[in-house]
Amino acid sequence: MQHPPLDSIRNIGIISHIDAGKTTVSERILFYTGESHRIGEVHDGEAVMDWMPQEQERGITITSTATVCRWGGCRINLIDTPGHIDFTIEVERSLRVLDGAVAVFSAVEGVQPQSESVWRQADRYRVPRICFINKMDRVGADYRETIRQIEEKLGARPVLLQIPSGAEASFAGVVDLIAEEFLTFSEADQGRIVERHPIPAEIAEEARAARETMIEAAADFDDAILADFLEGAPITPERIRGALRKGTIACRIFPVFMGTALRNKGIQPLLDAVAAYLPSPRDVPPVIGQRPESDIVDTLLCDPAGPLCALAYKVQSDEGRKLSYLRIYSGTVKAGGALWNSTRGCFEKAARLFRMHAHKREQIDEALAGDIVAVAGLKEVLTGDTLCNPTHKVILEGLTVPEPVVALA
Length: 409
Ligand code: GDP
What we know:
The chain is α+β, with helices and mostly antiparallel strands. The chain has nine helices and 23 strands. Strands 18-17-23-14-15-22-19-20 form an eight-stranded antiparallel sheet. Strand 12 (287-290) and strand 13 (297-300) form a beta hairpin. Helix 6 (204-219) crosses helix 8 (237-249). The longest helix has 16 residues, at 204-219. Bound molecules: guanosine-5'-diphosphate. Residues 16, 18-24, 42-43, 61, 83, 134-135, 137-138, 260-262 line the site of guanosine-5'-diphosphate (GDP).
């Protein structure tokens, strides 16, 4: 079976205040990655991510399922984090298994209370984030005010990688400040096609200033960039991206993108950004496991050949059967294999393994470190349990808050 290289996996979640557009953004991501061929309206009970019956009744997203999709050579595991205030514990649980997140804000409402609390939770787990300012088409949309609130309310350092052309009904597209191009999203094929143009003259000055600020931010993570910039030497897009990626993974900066999910504008560059700036499982710190009844502590590297260690972060009933979602930190889970549930002290059988797509489940033979997999057949497991190899027992207890891995300037 073909496994993608570890570096190409992105385990991400979308976090936001309710109504900011998390479901719409998720829907569009699944659409543009080809996982969903029809765009459903989110509150008509047909949205792809909201497939639990309770959600259909209540019209809110409450599960933490993982849907796999592909973009730009990456396998993206989209972990659905709940947005409603009642489910903060669930948000926290799912944040533990994310390597990165997209924080969605409404350009009209800015940083709302729930985005603030989930942002703080993400700070605790040091989850690298990129920001998407949604609803740029709505009356009152003001990306500058949202940026100001990200700075003031969240105490974070947003870095614009785009600026818009037009606002509200005349929102036309975004300037890509790295490529120095103006992107529009064709009406054809529901906006799948991105068209590239020169930067419009009326926003050229604003783009130049925003680009300068962006390069100053990049220079904090790559000294040579600043020198080249001051000398007027060319700086390749790859170098700028590399520096911004470093700063993002260290949670020092938060790249900002914008658009309108409802009108299909801005999602493709957001997907490119997930691939470019958010970390792979290999870029995040290893987890720490404790050997039961001993003082031995294991540092579990993201290595498929290492000792098996997985966290059951979500257990749900699926057509009357138990389906457990595992984040595998180390080792390999094989279909039909025996696992040791070190939280409950019992054997379990991973009867069948699935990769969950938006509309189908794909049965697989094995899943490796760094991945997320749904497992049928685990009888005793509860959310939060550690699963490992019976010959190498280890338990993940209250996963430690990781230190940043990137060496800081
Ligand atoms: P969630 O609660 O964060 O998942 O938000 P939803 O995705 O359900 O969106 C909340 C409401 O905002 C829905 O009525 C969407 O149709 C609407 N919406 C989402 N994105 C946009 C957008 O870009 N522009 C406008 N005008 N409305 C949007």
